[in-house]
Amino acid sequence: MAKIGILPLGRPTFDVPFAEEMLAGMLANLDASGHEIIGPRGLLFDADATLTAIGTLKAASPDRVLFLQVTFTDASMAVEAANAFPDTPLAIWAVPEPRLGGRLRLNAFCGLNLASHALGLNHRSFGWLYGPPDSAELAALLDGGRMAGRLDPVKTEARSAAADAAIARLDGRRIGRIGEHPIGFDTCAYDGPDLKSLTGITVDALSLEQLFDTARAADGTAVARVRDQAATLDGIEDVNQDELDKSLRLKVALDTIRADGGYDAFAIRCWPETFTEYGGAVCGPVAMLGEARVPCACEADVYGAVSQMMLQNAAEAPVFLVDLVDMDLGDDTGVVWHCGQAPISMRDPDIPAEATIHTNRKMPLLYEFPLKPGRVTFLRLSQAHGQVRLVISGGEMLKRDMAFTGTSGVVRFDRDAGRTLQDVIDSGLEHHMALAYGDHRDTLRAMAGALNIPVLEI
User: Hey, where are the domains in the chain?
Assistant: First the structure.
């Protein structure tokens, strides 16, 4: 019997009653395991509570520390715990949620994804489980099994005229990084000189205040034109009109900043300040810019913006920066999603696009529709495990009902869901990947050859 120290992680912006229900089931399974379970039995909603719990666990000298990833959280507390327990084995257990067409009530997989990447960067091994509260796989996890591996990329010598041209179009391009990436999002960190040396892309650091001030001062005629663009969305009159106006002004502001600075893409710290300090969502404007082939990455994810630029050059089509939020081994599918910012051309033509609000922050403008069926390619210029590589994947977007609110799609990857899930964790992959329709893997492999970086296919 081992002494298992638990840290139940959650955020109050998600469905707390549902999270507490999931946690109760997880605790019941742990209590039935035969191991000694120590640590808090309620959700830890903030850094102070989690740091206190880590200190208490450290005094108790557990044999293993288990993160209960009940909802999405950033990776900061996983790193804190890893540092507090340098010689203690670590494990993560994240719970799935049903695809009911409503909000992402937990988004726990994304928390697992962030923690996996952060622990990989910190050279910490860990066990992991993505399974329901009553999962029979828990026993193996508690016994030290289900360890994350490490996938190493391979060099490719492929070159092509199309790939060389796509890479050449990156040189001299400019990204406006608006605000800094949130704490605990190690997936969004970058080094400007390294990126410049690798791709020829320059990043300028801009402030959120500049974006907000430009939006507040936006010309009314320009805002009206953006309003006309959004008028095709069903329900546009039903959302809060003052907040809608603020959201549309962000589109005008981004257009203005882009014209003034000569930017080809943006990496924007979209939350929480666009809601808490400004009062409107940037998601709808990002969808509009994406359709116009001006990539925008959430959470100030510069390498996410570069991934979009690379895939857009290969596909010569709009791209969408997605989170992988669920994997269902029984259905052999995954769900890719982001709040509501897919380019409108990716909409399932049988389903109208609707205007909606952010599920956690309750402000417009977001797009809502399921992604259309068809062949898709995924790309990430990754820094996992401290090594630059190009991560490529492919699959088929299925014609399915909307899995979650916002813009989402159900995808069957080329490899089975279990293998893909294992690869995502073993690769230490960042939580954002660029998506485009069509099969562009040959061009992307050749682009990696032109950049002299290795390729990892998952």
Answer: 3-142, 161-457
User: Based on C-alpha coordinates, what's the Rg of the chain?
Assistant: 22
Q: Any idea which residue has 């360890």 for tokens?
A: 147
Nearest-5° Cα angle at 53, 51 to 55: 70
Tens digits of residue pLDDT in 44-87: 999 999 999 999 999 999 999 999 999 999 999 999 999 999 99
Give the DSSP H/E element, type plus range, for residue 177: strand 174-178
Over the stretch 1-52, which tens digit does the pLDDT of each residue have? 899 999 999 999 999 999 999 999 999 999 999 999 999 999 999 999 999 9
Domain 3-142 belongs in CATH node 3.40.50.10940: yes
Buried-state track 294-306, b at ≥16 Cβ within 10 A, e below 16: bbbbbbbbbbbbb
Pick the CATH number of 161-457 from 3.20.14, 3.10.20, 3.30.1460, 3.40.120: 3.20.14
Contact 382, 444 (CB under 8 A): no
Q: Are 239 and 364 in contact (CB under 8 A)?
A: yes
Q: What is the pLDDT of residue 323?
A: 98
| Cβ 250 vs Cβ 274: under 8 Å | yes
Closest CA to 178 of 196, 204, 214, 215: 204
Sheet with 202-206, edge to edge strand ranges? 202-206, 174-178, 265-268, 296-297
